[in-house]
Amino acid sequence: MKDPRTELAALSVAFRERLERAHDQGRTSLLVPVASQSTPEPVPMAVSAQPASAASAQPAASASASRGKKLPLVSIEPELPDRAARVQSLATIAKEVSTCRKCGLCDSRTQTVFARGTGRTRIMFVGEAPGADEDRQGLPFVGRAGQLLDQIIDAAGFDRESIYVANILKCRPPQNRDPKPEETAACTGFLEAQIELVNPKIICALGRHAAQFLTGKPDAPMGQLRGRIHYYREKIMVLPTYHPAALLRNPEWKRVVWDDMQILRREYLR
After folding, report:
1. Which pLDDT does position 32 carry in this prediction?
2. Looking at the domain that runs over 81-269, which CATH code has it been given?
3. What is the pLDDT of residues 59-117, one digit of tens each?
4. Nearby residues of 113 by Cβ (< 8 Å), 6 or more positions away
């Protein structure tokens, strides 16, 4: 075995010789310069080429161009002359809901969940039912899904406080199971009254249950409903899209929801 001290001395001599050669060449460092190595430009996301007919068949194609950008804030509409009476009527219904015992959900709820937002923007978001966070706080869409919904609303250029947000059911189903027909029937009158008093220009139906209920198409799959304008009772526009909770499980769906939000904005401003 070689003496480590001998090897160290040899390395020291070699290093000194390299340093002296670098000095003679006008270099101040032994490091290899990397400036001459070109840094590759970021590669843009590939876009599949489509025939002209296919491209024209996609109404949301132009909306995709601004995906990821926060859109300009939409102005809040002036108050309706009878707004005070409408607000009072909503408060009366909320009080009635708080003591409702029309179905068995009253036995398992912590409290009822009526709505949030003023409705001044005349856009209404409707989901299917409250979750655990909503059951504790008494407000719709306040958990993780609600936080994501707020981000989507902000990015689409709407004031979240002036949006009206509600659910079909006013009580949480145990373990967040799907609503039963009799539970939906018990709450239908409350939602109908909310829609009449808020008088939205367009309703965004969040998730399959809300979409089927508001479009009157109980058997239609979500893929056929979302991204298209339907009508509630032939007079109020309804735009179905995926529920924020589904986006938490399937982040790739955020892209199509963003396209849906721009359809919502376009139709509202039309």
Report:
1. 41
2. 3.40.470.10
3. 333 444 445 578 999 999 888 899 999 999 999 999 999 999 999 999 999 999 999 99
4. 130, 134, 135, 138, 139, 140, 167, 170, 171, 172
Q: Give the whole-angstrom CA distance, residue 112 versus residue 96.
A: 10
Q: C-alpha angle 240/242/245, rounded to 5°?
A: 140
CB-based contact 186:103 (threshold 8 Å): yes
For residues 75 and 265, the answer to whether their CB atoms sit within 8 Å is: no
How far apart (Å, rounded) are the C-alpha atoms in residues 135 and 177? 14
Residue closest to 168 by CA, chosen among 227, 105, 222: 105
Phi-psi region of 199 (alpha: psi -120 to 50; beta: other; left: phi over 0): left
Beta strands in the chain (DSSP E): 115-116, 123-127, 164-167, 202-206, 230-232, 236-241
Q: Where along the chain do its domains lie?
A: 81-269
Q: Compute, in degrees rounded to 10, the torsion defined by CA atoms 54, 69, 73, 214.
A: 50
